[in-house]
Amino acid sequence: MTAKTPSKLEKVLAAGHFAVTSECGPPRGSDPTEIVEKAEIIKDHVDAINITDNQTSVCRTCSLAVCIRLKTMGLEPVLQMVTRDRNRIALQSDILGAAHWDINNILCLSGDHQSFGDSSKGQNVHDLDSMQLLQTVRLMCDEGKFLGGDDIKRPPQMFAGAAANPFADPFEIRVARLAKKVAAGAQFIQTQCIYNLDKFEEWMKGVRDRGLHEKTAIMAGLTPMKSAGMARYMKNRVPGMDVPDEVVKRLADTPKEKQAEEGIKMCIESIQRLKEVEGVRGFHIMAIEWEEKVPGIVEAAGLYPRPEV
Amino acid sequence: MIVGEQKPLEELWESIKDHKKVLVFGCNTCVAVCQQGGNKEAEILASLLRMKATQEGVDMEIQDSGIERQCEHEFFEKTEERVEWADAVLSTACGIGVQFMAEKYPKPIYPGLNTTFLGAVEELGVYTERCQACGQCILAQTGGICPIARCAKRVMNGPCGGSTNGKCEISKDVDCAWQLIVDRLKLLGRMDDYEKLTPIKDWSSDRAGGPRKLVREDVQHDS
């Protein structure tokens, strides 16, 4: 397998290494200090850094601006882009804006509903959905065309990814849905946070049965729990999240001051187990407002040092 | 049908309070089905507003009337006099009827309802949205369930990652349209169709293309 784009993430995967990505959320203001610090903390332990796009529909600095910031720091950003806030003109324009700065990774998402955030009275756009955005990226990159049919001068070169939630309902179409994303052009997949490893492995079996793991690079998503309270919240309040009772129990049975440490330990154990699952090609570690823990997790999981490609 | 919900009395009063002769004017077809805005409801509303006027000590005459449909010229003929009498009309039609009346009469026509959606009567007193009139029906591809009207993100290749136990991420009371579509495709033995990618939609036949107009020359009058 050889990389088709200048993406470092694609090169790491093409060389057969487990890839490691993490994510940073842009600030709710214009001060770049904090996001630069977050990126500095994790940069040597990951291959690329996802920059979220107004996650949970809370208004923040735009993903593209922060991706450009990372690029100027010599880092490898993954531009997250949701279809909630932009129509096809804005989406294509921002893809070109990213390509202008040689941003080579994009993650195509539909985005949380705006009712979760600070703009619940706003419109949502959804001119395209996430699969159609993937198709758009591939059209722009591979054929050098706009959706309108015109040629793009210097087409973008992007490694195009999508999210997959192995746990959302209805479960029986979760593999079929991945197949659709692969058909739409997903070159890599970052999954929803995995806590139910048995169910994830069942999904992966379905994925392998259809050979999808050979057509796209599946990166397992992980978020370390900070406390039993967080586990309960994720279980009960976050849509599409599958947190088994034993995960909550293990944290709840741990003294409060040790719960964070236990959460990290559980995350590392999960990575170690998932490394053995055929078709898992990397890990996407989403340590929400806990970036400082990423290097320790990566090291303890035996994923450090990161390969030079 | 077009579903509507009567506006709060206070808001209606604010609209009409400075007029002397007000006609509350019902529309007896679509909105009447959900017992809002029909001729009977117009009569009740007129009584409530008369009481309100008395309470407020405002000298105002309020009458009520109604027709079958406020969106067609012919139905207005019988009530021309009533409408002429009023110096303002509170129309309890949907937004279409209110505008159609406003185009016909050079006097204030106020909306009595909030036009809510195009929907069905699920059971008595429960009305739910089914169609957004996008102008390009895709129900043949989606097992007869519309993701544009019924998915909060109008995802054409769903479900999104927020579907849980058959419900939408926005509320446990809202069915996930794509769960319904998958269930329906299964029932129809058409699950293979699920994997067909729905192409990018042409929204030009939707609101995005500007106000829409349909002309049927074959049924137009010669006059």
Short précis:
The complex is a heterodimer of chains A (309) and B (223). Helix content of chain A is 39%, strand content 15%.
Q: Would you kindly provide a written description of the structure presented here, covering whatever features stand out?
A:
The complex is a heterodimer of chains A (309) and B (223). In chain A, helix 3 links the parallel strand 2 and strand 3. Chain A is built from 11 helices and 8 strands. Chain A has an 8-stranded parallel barrel with strand order 1-2-3-4-5-6-7-8, surrounded by 7 helices. Chain A has 309 residues and is of the alpha/beta class. Chain A has one domain: TIM Barrel (Alpha-Beta Barrel), CATH 3.20.20. Helices cover 39% and strands 15% of the residues of chain A. Chain B has 223 residues and is α/β, with parallel strands linked by helices. Chain B folds into 2 domains: 116 residues, 3-Layer(aba) Sandwich (Rossmann fold), CATH 3.40.50; 76 residues, no CATH class. Chain B is 27% helix and 22% strand. Chain B contains 7 helices and 9 strands. In chain B, a hairpin with a 2-residue loop joins strand 6 and strand 7. Chain B is elongated. The two termini of chain B are 31 Å apart. The chains are: A alpha/beta (309), B alpha/beta (223).
